[in-house]
Design a protein that fits this description.
This protein is about 70% helix and about 5% strand. It is mainly alpha-helical and about 325 residues long. It folds into two domains: about 230 residues, Alpha-lytic protease prodomain-like, CATH 1.20.1510.10; about 80 residues, Alpha-Beta Plaits. Strands 1-2-3 form a three-stranded mixed beta sheet. The chain is elongated and about 85 Å long. Keywords: Membrane, Transmembrane, Transmembrane helix, Transport.
Length: about 325
């Protein structure tokens, strides 16, 4: 992550600061306007700072140089952080979905109601999801005739979270930071959840109670899918899953260019290469390449060629690191 550490850490800190500011703003507005939705969202924004702190810790740790204890660097800590954050967001999405289903029960025929209630109660007890728990995004609680000024603060939260999501995702993909991308999608989850809060408050004025749980269920499915995708990719990285075929082809193209350059310059002994293997390690890619020389090549010349190849590949593909 060399060269990207500053911007990446700044974005993570911006997310932390935004959650604190939104939490204070919504908390004060909720208390003033008598809005349980805003108070619940404020509590959730404050507790989300734990995820932001974890993101900052993983980002800072992953930037450390390799050491004798960790010769390949600390990049895998990003994957560990992403796994933890993805599980948090996945459980949060499940909680939202279960709560939305429980709100939809009143619209079911009585013949099905009893069995569905048993199923949801069993799942809720397994996941420790409670209707009055703030981290289940309790904006789904019904509240009647809330001051319409509360919609202004919810709308501000939607705009801020969506803007932060787009900016954070852009930096995460540029810097190849999985934990920052997980944080970005959490901002997106919060923005979508704020839309459900908006519907809950507005619907209380028009009696459209069905829209709130339906919207919550759709959002839970969308957000849960994103969280599950991040979780799977992070677990694959921890298990040293190979990079994508396109990335592997790009590394091979860089190796071909280095071989051609060596043949033209004639400063280093000729070589061939094979068996390119590459895995993700946080923002970096660790590649293993076998070079083959003629029998009469001196060890010092072979090592010098190896260094030349390493620099050539990293020049063409900066994210790649070829261990000594």
């Amino acid at each position: 992550m060399k060269g990207n550490g500053g911007p990446v850490a700044k974005v993570a800190f911006l997310g932390l600061l935004t959650n604190v500011m939104l939490g204070l703003m919504k908390g004060l507005a909720g208390w003033t306007l008598n809005s349980a939705v805003l108070v619940a969202d404020a509590s959730h924004s404050i507790t989300d700072t734990l995820g932001d702190i974890l993101t900052l810790f993983c980002l800072c740790k992953a930037q450390k140089r390799p050491s004798p204890e960790y010769p390949f660097g600390y990049g895998k800590l990003e994957a560990v952080g992403t796994v933890v954050i993805s599980i948090m967001y996945l459980l949060s999405s499940v909680g939202i979905g279960l709560h939305s289903c429980s709100q939809l029960l009143v619209f079911l025929p009585e013949s099905l109601l009893y069995y569905v209630q048993l199923w949801i109660a069993a799942l809720s007890s397994m996941l420790a999801v409670h209707d009055d728990h703030g981290h289940s995004h309790s904006h789904y609680h019904h509240e009647s005739l809330v001051d319409p000024k509360a919609l202004v603060f919810v709308f501000i939260g939607i705009v801020v979270k969506e803007a932060l999501f787009r900016y954070t995702r852009k930096v995460a993909r540029t810097s190849r930071s999985s934990v920052l991308e997980a944080s970005a999608y959490h901002h997106h989850i919060e923005g979508m959840s704020a839309i459900a809060s908006f519907i809950a408050i507005a619907g209380s004025w028009y009696g459209l109670t069905l829209l709130d749980p339906l919207g919550g269920l759709v959002l839970a499915l969308i957000n849960g899918r994103e969280a599950l995708s991040l979780l799977v990719s992070s677990l694959q990285q921890l298990c040293d899953h190979s990079v994508s075929l396109d990335t592997l082809r790009a590394i091979e193209a860089a190796m071909d260019e280095a071989e051609t350059s060596t043949n033209l310059q004639q400063k280093h002994p000729l070589f061939t290469w094979d068996e390119v293997k590459a895995v993700n390690s946080g923002p970096s890619i660790i590649a293993y390449v076998r070079l083959r020389f003629e029998r009469d090549v001196l060890l010092a010349d072979a090592l010098a060629t190896e260094q030349f190849v390493r620099k050539s590949v990293q020049s063409a593909y900066p994210a790649v690191r070829i261990p000594d």
